[in-house]
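Hi,

I'm pasting everything inline rather than attaching a file, because the server keeps stripping attachments. The sequence lines come first, and each chain or strand is labelled.
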Amino acid sequence: MSLNELWFVLVAVLFIGFFFLEGFDFGIGMSTRFLAKNDMERRVLINSIGPFWDANEVWLLTAGGAMFAAFPNWYATMFSGYYTPLVVLLLALIGRGVAFEFRGKVDNTKWKNTWDMAIFLGSLLPPFLLGVVFSGLLKGLPIDSEMEMKAGLFDMVNLYTLVGGITVVVLCLVHGLLFASLRTTGDLQKRARKLAHTMLIPLAALFVIFAVMTYFQTDVFEVRGLPLVLLAVVGLVAFLLAGWFMSKQRDGWAFGMTGTLIALSIAGVFVGLFPRVMVSSINEAFSLTVYTASSGNYSLKVMTIVALTLLPFVLAYQIWSYFVFHKRVHEKEHLEY
Amino acid sequence: MDPLVLARLQFAVTTIFHFFFVPLSIGLALLIAIMETMYVVKGKEEYKRMAKFWGKLFLINFAVGVVTGIIQEFQFGMNWSDYSRFVGDVFGAPLAVEALFAFFMESTFIGLWIFGWERLSKRVHLLCIWLVAIGTTVSAFWILTANSFMQRPVGFEMVNGRAEMNDFFALITNGQLLVEFPHTVLGAFATGAFMIAGISAYKMLRRKDMEFFKKSFKLGVIVGLIASLGTALYGHQQAQYLVKTQPMKMAASEGLWGKSGDPAPWTVYAHIDPKTGENSFEIKIPYMLSFLSYSSFSGEVKGMNELQAEYEQTYGPGDYIPPVRTTFWSFRIMVAAGSLMIVLSLYGAYLAWRKKLDNKNTWFYRLMLWSISLPFIANTAGWVMTEFGRQPWTVFGLMQTKDSVSPSVTSGQLLFSLIAFTAIFTVLAASMVYLFVKTIKKGPYAEGTDDSHSIDPFSKEGYHVS
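And the predicted assembly:
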C-alpha cells in the first residue's frame, strides 16, 4: 500500500471516528427537542454527553486537518466548492458549541429556549449537511480541468443527496437515542429505547432507498461492486442485530450495532470513491484521485510517523474518559450544564 | 465587490475575533493550573475555590475560543483554496498535528476537569488541568509553526509550482518560530494574568471577599509582570530577526522611506503620506532604532524605497510596500500597551510584596480594571502589524495574497458568510460579556453554584478512579 492509499484510509478512519462519536452527540442534541419532557430531562440528556462532545468534535477538525496536509487539492476543491453549505455547517457548530456552555448559566426561560434551539439546530444541520456533501462526492460534482468545483445549488442539493442527508440524520438519531438509553435512568431511558426501536423502520426504508438510488445514480457499484455488496450484507446483519438487541433491552450491544452501521456506511462511501476522492461529473479524467490530490511523499511520510505515534495515545485517553464517566447521569446529581 | 477584499476582510474579522479568546484561554489555563497545584500542595480549600471561580470564566471563554477556531481550520480551504493547494504540503502538516496533538488533549481533559471534581483523585484532577494548559500552549506552537512558514519559508522545495516539504525539522526550528512562539505565548500568559488581576482589583475596590481577591490579585500581577517582561524581551528578539528576514516590514513599521542614517533614530510619531512616499512631520529618539534592530547603538536600517528597488530586481515589477500607516501605528500601539502593562504589573507586584494591598489604592485598582483591555489591544495590534506588514505576500517571497484567494467562490457567497459570521460573533461577544459580568458579580462564594447536589443513594458504589 502506498502512502497515498494509507492516508486515504486514515482520513476515512477519522471520519468514521467522527460520525461514530459525534453521531450520538448529534442524536442526543436532536432528541432534546422531543424526547425530553421538561427542563430537567433536557439537562440530563445534555449532561450525558457533557464530558465528551468537545473531544468528539475534534475528530472532524482532525479529519479536515488530515485532508489539508495529505490531500491539499481535495481539501481546497471540496471546501471552496461546498462554500455555502460549509458556512451553514460552521454557524450550526458554533451555535451548538457555546449553547452547551451557556444555556445553564442563566436562570431565564427565554435564554434557555434560545440556546436549546441552537443545540437542536446545531445537532440536526451538521449531520444533514455532511450527508448531503458525502453523497455529493459519490454522485459527482462539476469539477473542471483546473480542479475547480463550480457547483450550482442543484448540483449540491438534489433528491439523491437529500436522501443521503436525511439518512445520516436518522442514523445519528437512533445512535444517540441508544446512547441516551445507556446513560439515563427511569422513564427517560424507557422512552429513549422505545423511540430508537420505532425509528428503525424509517431508517431501514431510507437505507434501501439510498442504496437503490446509489445503484442508479452513481458508478460505485460498477467500480467496486463486490466489496460494496459485502459491506451491505454485513450492514444488514448489524441492522438486524441492532433490532434484536433493542427488543432484548441490551442497550450497549444495540449501540455497538448502530455504531457498526455508521462505520460501514462511511466505509462504503470511501470504498466507492477509491481511488478517487472527488468524482467529476464533467469528465472522468478531471476527477481528483489519491494520487493527483496528494502532498509529496516526504510530507506523507512525516505525517504517517506523527499520526501513528499520537493516535494510540489519543484513543487511550479518550477511552479512559468514557470509563471515568461510565455511570448514568441522574437528576439528583450535580448537573454541570 | 471584489472577492479578494471580502475574503481578506473576513479573514481579518474571524481571526482577530478568534484571537481575543485564544490568549485568554492559554493564560487562564496556566493560572488555574497554578492555583490548583497550590490547592493540592498546601491543601487549603481557598485555592480550590480560586481554581473553581476563575475556572468558570475560563470555561465560558474556552467555549467561544473553540467554536471560533473551527472556522479557522475550514476557511483556508473555503476562501483561500489556491493558497491551500500551493502550501498544503507544508502548511497543512502543522495544522493536522495541532488537531491530533493539542486539540484532542485540550478537549478530552477539559471534559475530565469540568465533570471530574468528584470522580477523580486530587492529583489526577490536577494532572487534567495541567494537560489542558499544556495542550493550549502546544496548540499555539503548531499554529505558529504554520504562521512562521508564511513569514519565513523554510524546509521546502518547489515541485511543479507547489511548495513541498522536504525538512520537517527545519519547519519546527524555524528562526522566526523560535522568537514568535515565546513572544505570543508569553503575551497570552499576560492576558490571563491581567484579566485575573483586573477583576480582583475591581472586587477589592468593592471590598468584596478581600482575602480571596487579594490572593488572586497577587498571583495575577506576579505572573503578569514576568510574562509582560518576557513578551517585551522576545519582542526585541523578534525585531532583530525581522531586520534580517523581512526588512520591508521593519521599514514600514518605522515609516522609513529613505536610509535611516547611522546610528538610526526611532520615530515616535510620524505623519505618513504613502502616496508621495514622504513623512511631513516626525518626532524621533536618537539611537533607538539601531538598538531595536541590532541591540547596539550603531547600525543603519534600510528604507522602503531602497527595498522596493531590491525586491523589483528579485521578484519582478510590482508594489512591495505594505500598508505603511497600519503597520507603523499597530507597532506603536502594541509597544505602548505592552509598556503600560510592565509598569502597572510592576507597581502591583510592589504593592503585593510590601503587603500594601489595602483599601487606599483605589486609583490603582481602577486603573487595573481598565488595564484588562491592554493585552487584548497589544495582541491584536501585534498581529495586525505582523500580517499587514507582510503584504503583498501570503508566503513571503513565494506567493502573493491576490493569487491566494479561491477562484470558484463568488462575492455573493463571501458577502453572505461575512455578514453571517459577523452577526453570530456579535451575539457570542454580547452573551459572553454578559455571562462574565454575571459570574463576577456573583463572586466565588455564591450559593447554589457549587456542590449543592444531594447524594443519590443508588450511586454510592465506588466510581472513584485513580
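Residues 448-466 of chain B have pLDDT under 50 and may be disordered.

If the labels don't parse on your end, tell me and I'll reformat.
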